[in-house]
Amino acid sequence: QAYVSYSNIAALTHLAAKPGWEITSTLDDIKIWTHEEGDVLSFKVEMQVKIQSHLAFSLLSDFTVRQQWDKHFLTCKLLQAVSEDEKIYYVTSPPMTGHKPRDFVILVSQRQPCKPSEPFVVAVKSVTLTSMPPSPEYCRSEILCAGFQIYDDNSFCKVCYFNQVTSGIMPYLAANLTGSSKSIEDTALECIKFLE
């Protein structure tokens, strides 16, 4: 368990530090970046939020309130609190046209910064739980690496959301990334509104 949670945080930190991010869109308080490597596409959404970083951290690390701002989360149930900083959730997503609804079993690891210059981290990856086998009515999907880094910015904070996407999730995002990144922007705006 210790290894899995460490690798969850490490994978997000590694993804955030990769060179070669390209900015694709800029709104007032939102910037969207993408990074391509083989058949893996990652994106980063940077949001300026007018609350303090520790508040944003406590709201973003509680996945049971995620569906209040993220329409990709239909339900989210806490399956297991492994420790104070590690929780396993079962998430369902609404169906897209012509697809079964998706479900996920995810580990959410959270870390407070050791130094003021470091971010708060909420890292997310899929895990396998024997008590939650795939069910025929859902398409079991995998999150390779996703999560938030939250930086202090005086009395405000900067929230960076990362998601590494395999070709399996591509149909859901293809429409957004080819034309405008509208759905990503809408979700980011909802997130800012929720946090503030």
Automatic annotation (TrEMBL):
<dbReference type="InterPro" id="IPR002913">
    <property type="entry name" value="START_lipid-bd_dom"/>
</dbReference>
<dbReference type="GO" id="GO:0008289">
    <property type="term" value="F:lipid binding"/>
</dbReference>
<dbReference type="InterPro" id="IPR051213">
    <property type="entry name" value="START_lipid_transfer"/>
</dbReference>
<dbReference type="InterPro" id="IPR023393">
    <property type="entry name" value="START-like_dom_sf"/>
</dbReference>
<dbReference type="GO" id="GO:0005737">
    <property type="term" value="C:cytoplasm"/>
</dbReference>
<feature type="domain" description="START">
    <location>
        <begin position="18"/>
        <end position="165"/>
    </location>
</feature>
<protein>
    <submittedName>
        <fullName>ACO12 thioesterase</fullName>
    </submittedName>
</protein>
<dbReference type="Pfam" id="PF01852">
    <property type="entry name" value="START"/>
</dbReference>
